[in-house]
Amino acid sequence: MEPSQTVEDESQPSIATVTRRIQRLSLHLIPLPPLQCSPQLDMLTCAKANKQEVDVASLSSYMRGKHREIQEKIFYFFNSRPDLQTPTEISMKEHRELCLRQLLGLVREAKIKPFRYVVEDPAKYFAISEAVGSIDISLGIKFGVQYSLWGGSVLNLGTKKHRDKYFDGIDNLEYLGCFAMTELHHGSNVQGLQTVATFDPITDEFIIDTPNDGAIKWWIGNAAVHGKFATVFARLVLPTHDSKGVSDMGVHAFIVPIRDLKTHQPLPGIEINDCGHKIGLNGVDNGALRFCSVRIPRDNLLNRFGDVTRDGKYTSSLPTINKRFAATLGELVGGRVGLAHSSVGILKIAVIIAVRYSLLRQQFGPPKQPEVSILDYQSQQHKLMPMLASTYAFHFATQYLVEKYSEMKKTHDEQLVGDVHALSAGLKSYVTSFTAKSLSTCREACGGHGYAAVNRFGTLRNDHDIFQTFEGDNTVLLQQVAADLLKQYKDKFQGGALSVTWNYLRESMNTYLSQPNPVTARWESEDHLRDPKFQLDAFRYRTSRLLQSVAARLQKHTKTLGSFGAWNRCLNHLLTLAESHIESVILAKFIEAVQNCPDASSQAALKLLCDLYALDRIWKDIGTYRNVDYVAPNKAKAINKLTQYLSFQVRNIAGEFIDAFDLPPYVLRAPIAMQSEAYSQYTQLVGF
């Protein structure tokens, strides 16, 4: 149909509606000369005509899984308690006290006891954590400090005597605690920590000391106001009878009481200061700790991987400092798993608000015609539809990560431990970085209304921003992924076994590194481009090429620059490799989730999102594929065209997709994400 035509047939309202929408979009978004046919318009016509039906309830049930009930219980509790709801404007002091009351209410009134799930059922623990974080991210972090970090360190690094002594107090919040690892001068480099724990064989105690200002424990959650205990990471030093006088056994974890249980005053030798107002997360009381000859019993050493006898001898089942250190950090990987999982929860909130606003908000249109929804604009679709697809992709990827982590906690399989360590590092880095960028994009997509604090983007963005830094700086974590890939690459050529997530490298080094097939490089049919095999092969081809090329560069530069200099010379290449690998894992898990979906309509809807995620990523890195002739020019154009078409199709059922996340109004709380009548509440906020 030509743009100048109209349809007035009242007997076919659906056709008339579709045609009017096409006219508006064609005139406003892609103006065309009269009597000319537009391929873009043909695409839009097809997309509108072929709107998929989605069973939202079935899709939501598949997404939410078996822990939906406990999340609903959390939402109901906070919705029924206005006194525990975080207001838009609140001082730091008030926010800290509110966060504590929220946590106490959750545990003591709502009877949500998450501590036992940290080890017994991590998937349930992370589901609780996601729900709690959606109420208030500060609450989610305080919750995580108490149970995952402080509590998790006792469970995972301690032994039975520690669990027997501290479990109930941690569980019921009598023993509020801290995780004191980071120091003023050392964050990512944990092996460089300077706090010292010297054993005194005369008194059978450890003496905890902060040797200089750089060793002050910094940014310690719960320390400034509420914490009573801290897991302190310090260098374990033993006296010896040789010329050195002491022996440094490396970084270990110690339980250190920091406040009197009755008076709540700092204990002798412990100096506590407040880190003050932050960019975000001001409901969490971050503090700084200095220790001056603080004595603790020998039993306060968390001794799962290393112990000290009464006469001062060191014992361990692990032979070296490096192995003990790796085992210690391996047990703390749950924090990264939790952050990746929580980051997806925050992304869901932002995407729901932005997409729902974009569906409701109308702006501009053809002359003498009603204004159109801003989500009908190609530019808005380009911002939000791939992001919506990515949100679903991350949901399934982090769900897989939680499953592997749960399996690791049950089996303690050494190969699985290494796989989860690298996968959690990669997903935490990739997902939190994507979410941080997306929060700004969502704010911009909502225009001036997105800038109002009540519509949440500012708080979400500021509170989430630090996710890119704590539990491992994202750039450092990606280097760990790259290092593990290189190790797998080396092991492959030495005949070693590959860990589970890396299995595709077994065939990829031969299949993917051969010259691209000139025939398939030109295939451009929709069936081919939407074939999961083509999509996954493309992702893995890129990863394999990057891995091979960076390995060759490192080998070359090591000869002249040494290993450290060569690594630094190739650093950006290594980061790109790590991101490419993580994207391959994300796509593989998304494809699996689509194939495993039992409901036909939900499966078709998820397939649409999966195709959009895959082709959008391929298009964004099309230069890589074109440089090696993996994709011919005609195929590149077809990918771009199909990506736009899929965005149109996703736009048509975007409401169903965000409804499937099934987050209640109280969690969203943004007036612009409600139906139009909710704007009356919005105007009341400014006095109308």
UniProtKB/TrEMBL annotation:
One of its GO terms (biological process) is lipid homeostasis. GO terms for molecular function: acyl-CoA oxidase activity; FAD binding; fatty acid binding. InterPro entries: ACOX_C_alpha1, Acyl-CoA_Oxase/DH_mid-dom, Acyl-CoA_Oxase/DH_mid-dom_sf, Acyl-CoA_oxidase, Acyl-CoA_oxidase_C, AcylCo_DH-like_C, AcylCoA_DH/oxidase_NM_dom_sf. Residues 330-485 form the Acyl-CoA oxidase C-alpha1 domain. GO terms for cellular component: peroxisome. Residues 531-675 form the Acyl-CoA oxidase C-terminal domain. The active site is at 471 (proton acceptor). Keywords: FAD, Fatty acid metabolism, Flavoprotein, Lipid metabolism, Oxidoreductase, Peroxisome, Transit peptide. It comes from the Eukaryota. Its cofactor is FAD. Residues 178-292 form the Acyl-CoA oxidase/dehydrogenase middle domain. Pfam families: ACOX, ACOX_C_alpha1, Acyl-CoA_dh_M. Its main location: other. It is found in: Peroxisome. FAD binds at residues 182, 221. Belongs to the acyl-CoA oxidase family. This is Acyl-coenzyme A oxidase. It comes from Gossypium schwendimanii (Cotton). The lineage of its organism: Eukaryota, Viridiplantae, Streptophyta, Embryophyta, Tracheophyta.
